[in-house]
TrEMBL record, chain A:
Belongs to the leucine-binding protein family. Residues 1-25 form the signal peptide. One of its GO terms (biological process) is amino acid transport. InterPro entries: BCAA_transport, Leu-bd, Peripla_BP_I. Keywords: Amino-acid transport, Signal, Transport. Transmembrane segments: none annotated. This is Branched-chain amino acid transporter substrate-binding protein. Gene3D superfamilies: 3.40.50.2300. Residues 28-375 form the Leucine-binding protein domain.
From TrEMBL, chain B:
Keywords: Cell membrane, Membrane, Transmembrane, Transmembrane helix. GO terms for cellular component: plasma membrane. It is a multi-pass membrane protein. It comes from Mesorhizobium amorphae CCNWGS0123. It is found in: Cell membrane. It comes from the Bacteria. The chain crosses the membrane at residues 7-25, 31-51, 58-77, 83-104, 111-131, 151-170, 201-223, 229-245, 252-272, 278-296. This is ABC transporter permease II ( substrates branched-chain/neutral amino acids) 2. Its main location: membrane.
């Protein structure tokens, strides 16, 4: 009896503390991040994920905080380095959930680390908006962990984007049907060529040159020389940042003129546009944005001002949009209840820097697959789903004389 | 078997300690459990590594290769076979790889062996990538199980106990004696009739099989297995650093390195997330300068110095420490 009344007393004390605390102190909303600051993934994370977290947190706090119900609460970022290792990432998520007891979690950088941390994030019920990863067969993943969301969409289809663009150009009679295709022989390049090559053949293209090169190979002059000797109409490279730069450089040096020139990851970086200047005009890249949307243009300016570095033309706005989705979900729900947030993200529509985002079975099926450089700006030319603002692709002019 | 009394006591104490540790998941299932899983993982791998590299003085950077082979043993067969069978496959795959490598590197010693083993993880990672793109579906493989951190912890604890028991048995056997002679002087070992090749390969296989099992146990935690993650060279380096910090002259040496290393690194990455790499680098330098023989080596030197005031015995201790 005594014990019971004691419990009741404690309960009411706790309730009172809770209500008073909420009413008087504007305690911050604590948001945990575990992502790579060191190790092989640090380069990508510090280019795409960390700057956007900084920008978002600054922007929200400058506007008075995150609107939770009828109060504005500042946000506080609790960040840890996962050293690009699943072991550390798992431990960090545990630390965030059980030691720091954060209100929300921003998941790690890269597909692998997101998948490794998914079981734990799901165990604690946090929404996991994976802005920097995708994989094949996402459906089975969503079925298992319905709190995971995939703004970049499935991996299938990304390699086929350029094939569709080339087919359109060919059907319009603008290019012939001879294609040279090369890939970096690393996980990404191999996976892309695996779906890209059959798609090219099925679309009726004649593959006149095909080659792969190891990751980290800087001497790509022979690759471009052989591709040029095959005299193709289009050049497709499923490439990574260092080789995207090196292939473009060699093509320019050797005056390898094709009507369509495509590079993959790396072509979306602002540094790529700066490096090649006017010579980048007409180059096709993987990814893209709706560059003419005012909301995106404003975002680029803010990104530069807040972080001192330029946003890229594919991944950065998606990373930022994922934070906007989290923020709007909290505002729509009016609380930090994780279950309610998951439900809201599953069903709601969110206004972001990449346009309106709506998840279909937790997957965003509207994504840019091909973009094109034009005077220092990338315009999206092809997308999956019903994205608006695609520009018609233009033929690449001859390399300017240097 | 004639077992000295103090070894029976140590054995009993070790088993009792393991029994106590088995209750940890009942106390906590959050952060501390995950930290313990990491500690237990490296305790198992580092001790297994030291089984071979301790007595032979051959620094192996092949841990990532064995770990990855174990991880892939699970990833490939997880949908068709029960988990215990997968562990057996990992044992077989790890041992087989070690035997192949052992046969190929019989004549390599010193730095040549180190370089070969460093390349091994990369080589196998590339082969797996190539096989998967040409014959498999995609690069990544899903591993979905119902294991929680508690299960992983228990499995790793059991593995660590088995590694320790094996190490203890090897130390007491003719094989252990042979390896100690090889480590001190291979030419002498050959002259007294030790089959150096056979001894090296057997122990490398035992060590590799255990590391592969550790990889197999961790596969469910990764969920999505890619060659980059499974054959991460960082694993090999961490194992060597932790084992050397502890010292490899005693079976429990690596354990003495793993626990403080993991805890201190966790403290650093928890409190200085932006300076981790710098502080880690300084810590490594400090270890090499201050504790060249590892924690156990240092402890033993201190212990002997206190026990004996005789200068000549001090000199022998210093000599042995080299």
């Amino acid at each position: 009896m005594l014990r019971r009344s004691f419990n009741v007393l404690m309960l009411s004390a706790a309730l009172a503390a809770g209500t008073f605390g909420a009413a008087f102190a504007q305690d911050p909303v604590r948001i945990g991040v575990s992502a790579s600051k060191t190790g092989p993934l640090a380069g990508g994370a510090s280019g795409v994920l960390w700057p956007n977290i900084k920008l978002w947190a600054e922007k929200v706090n400058k506007a008075g905080g995150l609107k939770v119900g009828d109060q504005m609460r500042p946000i506080e970022i609790v960040e840890y380095d996962d050293k690009s290792s699943p072991e550390e990432a798992v431990k960090n998520i545990q630390r965030l959930a059980t030691q720091d007891q954060v209100d929300l979690i921003i998941p790690p950088y890269s597909t692998g680390l997101n998948l490794a941390t998914a079981p734990l994030i799901a165990k604690y019920g946090y929404p996991q908006i994976v802005s920097t990863g995708n994989a094949n067969d996402l459906d089975q993943f969503v079925k298992r962990w319905p709190n995971t969301f995939w703004p970049l969409g499935p991996a299938q289809g990304i390699a086929d984007g350029i094939v569709g663009t080339l087919k359109d150009l060919h059907n319009a009679g603008k290019i012939g049907n001879k294609v040279a295709v090369v890939n970096v022989s690393d996980a990404f390049g191999l996976e892309m060529i695996k779906t890209g090559k059959p798609a090219l053949k099925q679309a009726g293209f004649d593959i006149v040159y095909e080659s792969s090169y190891p990751l980290g190979n800087q001497d790509l002059a022979p690759v471009i020389a052989s591709a040029k000797a095959a005299n193709p109409d289009a050049f497709v490279a499923y490439s990574y940042p260092p080789d995207s730069f090196a292939l473009t450089e060699q093509a320019q040096l050797q005056k390898f003129d094709v009507k369509a020139f495509f590079v993959s990851v790396g072509g979306n970086l602002d540094a790529y546009g700066k490096r090649f200047g006017a010579a980048a005009n007409g180059i096709l890249i993987m990814g893209g944005v709706n560059a003419s949307a005012p909301v995106f243009q404003a975002y680029r300016k803010e990104h530069l001002a807040a972080t001192g570095q330029e946003a890229d033309w594919w991944a950065s706005p998606v990373a930022y949009a994922s934070l906007e989705i989290l923020q709007q979900a909290v505002e729509h729900v009016g609380s930090l209840d994780k279950e309610a947030l998951n439900k809201e993200i599953q069903t709601g529509t969110f206004k972001t820097v990449i346009g309106d985002v709506h998840f279909d079975n937790n997957i965003n099926n509207n994504n840019w697959t091909v973009g094109q450089w034009s005077d220092g700006v990338v315009h999206g030319v092809r997308a999956t789903g019903n994205l608006q603002g695609a520009q018609p692709p233009v033929l690449k002019p001859a390399w300017p004389s240097n | 078997m004639n077992i000295p009394r103090n070894e029976i006591l140590t054995l009993g104490a070790g088993l009792a300690g393991a029994a106590v540790l088995a209750f940890l998941p009942l106390v906590t299932e959050g952060f501390w459990l995950s930290l313990s899983v990491n500690i237990m993982l490296y305790a198992a791998i580092c001790t297994a590594w030291a089984l071979f590299s301790g007595p032979t003085h051959l620094v192996s950077l092949a841990s990532a290769a064995f770990f990855g082979v174990g991880t892939y043993s699970v990833a490939i067969f997880v949908d068709v076979l029960p988990f215990p069978a997968l562990i057996l496959i990992a044992v077989a795959a790890g041992a087989l790889l070690a035997i192949l490598v052992g046969l190929a590197t019989l004549r390599l010693s010193g730095v040549y062996f180190v370089i070969f083993t460093l390349g091994l993880a990369e080589l196998i990672g590339q082969i797996v990538t190539w096989v998967q793109t040409n014959f498999g579906g995609a690069i990544g493989l899903y591993v979905f199980t119902d294991f929680t951190e508690t299960h992983l912890y228990w499995m790793l604890l059991a593995l660590t106990v088995v590694v320790f028991l094996t190490g203890w048995l090897v130390n007491r056997s003719r094989l252990g004696l042979a390896l100690r002679i090889i480590g001190n002087d291979e030419a002498v070992a050959r002259h007294v009739g030790v089959d150096t090749a056979r001894a090296r390969i057997i122990l490398f296989a035992v060590s590799g099989a255990f590391i592969a099992v550790a990889g197999a146990i961790m596969a469910p935690r990764y969920s999505y297995i890619t060659p980059d993650a499974a054959f991460n060279p960082m694993t090999s380096f961490l194992v060597v650093i932790m084992a050397l910090l502890g010292g490899t002259r005693r079976l429990w040496g690596p354990l003495v390195g793993v626990v403080p290393f993991t805890v201190v690194m966790d403290f650093i990455s928890g409190h200085f997330p932006n300076q981790t790499a710098v502080i880690m680098g300084l810590a490594f330098l400090a270890i090499v300068y201050v504790l060249p023989d590892g924690v156990t080596g240092q402890l033993e030197t201190l212990f002997r110095r206190r026990c004996s005031l005789d200068k000549s015995s001090l000199a022998t201790t210093a000599e042995e420490g080299r």
